[in-house]
Design brief:
The protein is α+β, with helices and mostly antiparallel strands. The protein has one domain. About 35% of the residues lie in helices and about 15% in strands. The chain contains three helices and four strands; from the N terminus they run E-E-E-E-H-H-H. It starts with 7 loop residues before the first strand and ends in a 6-residue tail after the last helix. The structure holds zinc ion. Zinc ion binds next to helix 1.
Length: about 90
């Protein structure tokens, strides 16, 4: 199906691995055009559409809380999933 191996990324919210071309970039700073010294996080299509309707300020605040204490990526992800699940209800499996 895919003639070339594409680099894959992991969805920030649900941990699904998907090809980068299928992922939605999520920049927690809200500025996707300034790429200097940044790493983008990624969301799968399902989580992206789940999250976007949420008030953005709230999501930023949430991410700020989750980053307190500089957790490892794995820890951050599990905190994120647990917190979103807690506040917004379970993410839909797609
Ligand atoms: Zn996802």
């Amino acid at each position: 199906m895919w003639p070339f191996r594409t680099s894959s990324v992991v969805c920030l919210a649900c941990g699904t691995e998907l090809s980068q071309s299928m992922a939605r970039e999520y920049d927690k700073y809200g500025d996707r055009w300034d790429r200097a010294n940044k790493t983008f996080e990624h969301l799968c299509k399902g989580c992206h559409s789940d999250l976007c309707p949420q008030p953005r300020g709230e999501l930023e605040k949430l991410l700020g809380e989750l980053e307190a204490g500089n957790p490892s990526q794995a820890e951050f992800l599990s905190r994120y999933v647990a917190t979103v699940d807690d506040r917004y209800g379970p993410l839909e499996e797609s």
